[in-house]
Hints:
The chain has helices at 5-14, 34-44, 55-65, 79-87, 97-102, 159-172, 174-187, 196-204, 215-224, 260-270, 273-282, 296-299, 312-316, 318-327, and strands spanning 21-26, 47-52, 73-77, 91-92, 115-127, 151-152, 210-214, 230-233, 245-254, 286-287.
Amino acid sequence: MRRMFPLVLALALSAPAAADTLVVYSERKEPLLTPILEAWTAQTGVQVHLLTDQAQVLVERLAAEGERTRADVLVTVDAGNLWLATERGVLAPLRSETLDAVVPAAFRDPDGHWYAITERARVIVRSTERVPAAELSTYEDLADPKWQGRLCLRSSRKVYNQSLVAMLIDRHGEERTEQIVRGWVGNLAAPPFADDTLVVNAIAAGQCDVGIVNTYYYGRLARDRPDLPVAVFWPNQAEGESGVHVNVTGAGLVRHSRQPELARRFIEWLLSEAAQRQFADIDYEFAVRPGVEPNAAVAAWGGFRADDRNIAQAGRRQAQAVRLMDRAGYR
Length: 331
Ligand code: FE
């Protein structure tokens, strides 16, 4: 019998993607995407080749590959990254009435270059032993001297914090935002941490009392340790305040995709009720599609109002935010 394997391998490496294969470049971690891709393949018969890397690497790769790319869809976390990909010209606007109807205006590029596929809330977390919820109110209030020596933050190099500060600039202007960020820095209990998990753990260990993290980091820790002495606080909920800072994971059509129709169908499917249900259950994130309720563990933290300012601003003001954080001494 002839051995087929080398032939198949050679084809996979050199030939353009077959019509029944979709190529997805993704910054989203594989275990958080694979079950959803498998469901798509089961339903449509279309295979998905997944290439995962950091967003900037993928964007530069797409720019370098240009018309030769095999990629059809780019998936990345954070609107800042999606904005960057749009600016770099590697995405094409997607015209989809389905997507425009399903994805709230705050969570998509106004020109259709990308659409949110999950929402991720960046919230205040508090020590349940040392901070009653009534003591907390807003992100801005964490600059108040009453939190001196009690605040833990993740590094300003993380795009999540760049986006949060960018949205503060969008709302308050540079001067007031710089005061807020200086206040945060003055209140730090420890140098900024490398990730959100360390922030939650530092609160649990008594190193600090409050912090700012994405809820799914908290959710994973609380799942593994039900007695975790840390709770979610939904900030900025009072009348006239911004609401919770909500960022996204999003998807866009690669400009030089050879199968834009299939790519569009795939992204529409990511926003379908079934896929959205899976996203909501897979890692304590929030569905984008209205009516898809959070996972029970997430729902137990209570409801909240999200900021409805267009999250694309987080990208537009990202460089400004980075410079501001630098001036304010936020490392
Ligand atoms: Fe994350």
